[in-house]
Design goal:
heterodimer, A: 125 residues, B: 226 residues, mainly alpha, 2 domains
């Protein structure tokens, strides 16, 4: 089968992504970083994108692969999310502390982060 | 359970969730992740299927979370000029968000008489799953329970976050995305990406910095917590 240049560029972009993932997993483990492999891989890909941008400015070649993976990011959380059913008993028995322990930090942190960033950016503008 | 059945079932549930949400005008409560989890969970419970068997069969979907997380570098790269310009406000927001999330997660359940293992399992729940699990184990929590609480936090942030930010008048796309990523990791980032690429990019940044911040702040607050 013949590959057209655009296809090959997209494949090279997918390979960049997978290599950064692999390198991130290795670095996180070997250096005992407080970040999981994929997050370290994110940082590595960010560096690679900067280098590639200097050579050839514009839309990065990993764009198509990244957009495909992120378009339905929510779907990828479903298998792990269903795991909540294994804790239904505990969640019922400890309903009040669990609900309060989930809701209070969420509201406080979302409010705090959102307001601080929004108002600081607005004051500067 | 066969991989084919687990994948087909999960994708069918997700499509049904997207279609129902679209038909009903996308109300916040009908978040596609929440709805899919409820649908798949209900089928497993009704058919008496073991969760571990489903999760093992659904691995091909689950492992894609790795490259998808790496892929968050791309929107971040596209928005790099905006990120650089907002660096200081973002760091200030990160500090406020992480300290308040971990602090109240330790304090509130304890005041309500929760067992210590539940308190310690709740503490790291704003961080992305692999980080939260590791922190929970270090602190003396139950990692599997933490994983469930991380998911619930993400769903909560995705469902209620945008409305809460509207209510507070937080309109800047960077502030909205970052707050969602710091507090609700990947699930809220999926929601932020629906608002726009700028929101998604800052949410992706929030996942990484939130995980890093929680790793630093949790051990310190545990010293005070005693």
């Amino acid at each position: 089968m013949e590959t057209v240049p655009a296809d090959d560029r997209a494949l090279a972009g997918l390979l960049d992504l997978l290599l950064c993932w692999a390198a991130g997993e290795v670095l996180s483990r070997v250096l005992h970083l407080p970040l999981p492999g994929p997050v370290t891989g994110l940082v590595l890909l960010l560096g690679l994108l900067r280098l590639q941008d200097r050579r050839r400015p514009g839309e990065p070649r990993s764009g198509p692969a990244a957009d495909l993976l992120l378009r339905h990011l929510g779907l990828l959380f479903v298998p792990a999310g269903v795991g909540v059913i294994t804790y239904l008993g505990l969640l019922r028995d400890q309903a009040l502390p669990v609900v309060a322990g989930l809701v209070v930090p969420l509201v406080v942190a979302l409010t705090g982060t959102g307001l601080v960033v929004d108002r600081l950016l607005r004051r500067r503008a | 359970m066969s991989t084919a059945l687990a994948l087909a079932g999960t994708l069918a549930a997700y499509r049904l969730a997207l279609a129902s949400a679209a038909r009903l005008g996308r109300p916040a409560l009908l978040n596609p992740v929440l709805l899919s989890v409820v649908l798949v969970g209900a089928v497993l419970l009704l058919t008496g299927t073991d969760y571990d068997a489903y999760f093992a069969a659904a691995q091909p979907l689950h492992v894609l979370l790795g490259p998808a997380t790496v892929a968050l570098a791309v929107p971040l790269h596209r928005q790099r000029a905006r990120v650089r310009a907002a660096a200081l406000p973002l760091l200030a927001g990160l500090l406020v968000g992480v300290v308040s999330a971990v602090g109240t997660a330790l304090l509130v359940p304890r005041l309500l008489g929760a067992p210590e293992v539940l308190v310690l399992s709740l503490a790291p729940k704003s961080a992305t799953t692999p980080v939260a699990i590791a922190l929970s184990a270090d602190a003396g929590g139950a990692p599997a329970l933490t994983a469930a609480l991380v998911i619930l936090t993400g769903i909560g942030a995705a469902v209620a976050g945008p409305a809460l930010l509207d209510l507070l008048g937080v309109r800047d796309p960077a502030a909205r995305g970052f707050a969602l990523g710091v507090t609700g990791h990947g699930i809220a980032t999926a929601r932020a990406l629906q608002e726009g690429e700028q929101q998604g990019a800052f949410a992706g940044l929030g996942i990484g910095l939130g995980a890093l911040g929680t790793s630093v702040v949790l051990p310190l607050l545990l010293l005070l917590h005693g």
